[in-house]
């Protein structure tokens, strides 16, 4: 027992110092109690890139209905960058096909964490591509590694998203709730829910929040990676190609949601209502490119994973979320 400090006995095992050292050697590179306790390396959804055939229509919709601010773009760029906070953009709308998903960007806390996360994923069978400085410059990040998810979406893990030198000023006075939860959530369809679950839960380290089944035997899975109730959700639609159904943006005022519903009545897809699982009070708009935007307030938080209990629901909404009545 010479040189062994009994006060440092691992709290997961009491099998002697040799067994303890063997246990520690098997842990993935970059492992730490802090990372394990905080669910993993992904901090949140940092940005999204989509395609649209009519950029001007998206510019009008994004500013006058959603309250997003137009970000700076170089003369050589034809991309519409939209801001929600101090970052140079959170949503990038590229010329392209309506409904197209260009990329999802997930934020990592540091360069060291990005390298450790890449090592961990390699052990789990995912090799990330370390992107060049030119690619990082286009995304306005300091470093990035990428892969593709089972639905064919480009997934980017980044560090150091560029901060704007100008303050964020919403054209409608909207204030977006981001903080430690990322920009919101994305809801997508898939062809194989088991592949989705394996990739995001088992490999990337998301955690299950709850499930909703509108049709028996076909559950929607809601996943989180921070205190936001869910950052990602998916349901299997066999026989149909995977698609991005909607993106959710959260604001801090019910009045902001109400004003948006009035201002965007021509694009309204679902009226104001409250979801059963995340308690979000929201309305839905059909964007000019076909992707829906959920716009809401008071989303539920998961601040203590140890105390959280996964639930199952058979309805998406407690009230509201109805199709708007046809106007005369």
Description:
The structure is a single chain. This protein has helices at residues 17-25, 33-37, 55-64, 111-123, 133-139, 193-203, 254-263; strands at residues 42-52, 69-70, 80-83, 91-95, 101-108, 129-130, 143-148, 154-159, 184-190, 207-215, 218-224, 232-236, 244-250, 268-275, 281-286, 292-297, 311-313, 317-320. It has 328 residues and is α+β, with helices and mostly antiparallel strands. It has a single domain (42-320), classed as 2,3-Dihydroxybiphenyl 1,2-Dioxygenase, domain 1 (Roll). The protein has a 10-stranded mixed β-sheet, covered by helices on one side.
Multimeric status of the protein: single chain
Q: Within the largest sheet, what's the order of strands?
A: 17-10-11-12-9-13-16-15-14-18
State the end-to-end CA separation: 86 Å
Total DSSP E strands: 18
- Poorly predicted tracts of residues: 1-38
Largest sheet: 10 strands, mixed
The top-level CATH class is Alpha Beta
In short:
20% of the residues lie in helices and 32% in strands.
Q: Can you tag this structure with a few keywords?
A:
328 residues; alpha+beta; 2,3-Dihydroxybiphenyl 1,2-Dioxygenase, domain 1; 10-stranded mixed β-sheet; 8-stranded mixed β-sheet; 32% strand; disordered N terminus
């Amino acid at each position: 027992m010479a040189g062994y400090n009994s006060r440092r006995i691992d709290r997961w095992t009491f099998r002697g110092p040799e067994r303890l050292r063997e246990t520690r050697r098997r842990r993935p590179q970059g492992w730490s109690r802090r990372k394990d306790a905080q669910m993993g390396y992904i901090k949140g959804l940092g940005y999204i890139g989509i395609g649209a055939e009519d950029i001007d229509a998206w510019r009008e919709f994004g500013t006058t209905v959603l309250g997003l601010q137009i970000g700076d773009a170089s003369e050589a760029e034809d991309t519409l960058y939209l801001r929600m906070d101090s970052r140079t953009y959170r949503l990038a709308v590229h010329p392209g096909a309506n409904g197209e998903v260009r990329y999802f960007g997930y934020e990592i806390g540091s360069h060291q964490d990005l390298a450790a996360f890449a090592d961990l994923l390699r052990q789990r069978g995912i090799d990330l591509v370390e992107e060049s400085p030119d690619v990082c410059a286009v995304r306005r990040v300091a470093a990035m590694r990428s892969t593709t998810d089972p639905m064919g979406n480009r997934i980017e893990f980044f560090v150091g998203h560029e901060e704007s030198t100008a303050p964020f000023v919403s054209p409608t006075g909207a204030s977006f709730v981001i903080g430690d939860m990322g920009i919101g959530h994305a809801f997508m369809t898939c062809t194989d829910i088991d592949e989705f679950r394996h990739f995001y839960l088992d490999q990337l380290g998301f955690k299950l929040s709850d499930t909703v089944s509108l049709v028996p035997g076909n559950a929607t899975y809601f996943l989180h990676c921070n205190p936001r109730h869910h950052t990602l959700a998916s349901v299997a639609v066999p026989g149909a190609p995977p698609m991005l159904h909607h993106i959710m943006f959260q604001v801090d005022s019910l009045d902001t949601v109400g004003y948006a519903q009035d201002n965007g009545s021509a694009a309204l897809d679902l009226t104001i209502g409250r979801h059963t699982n995340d308690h979000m009070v929201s309305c839905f708009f059909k964007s000019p490119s076909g992707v829906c935007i959920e716009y809401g307030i008071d989303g539920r938080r998961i601040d203590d994973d140890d105390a959280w209990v996964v639930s199952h629901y058979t309805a998406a909404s407690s009230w509201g979320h109805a199709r708007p009545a046809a106007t005369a």
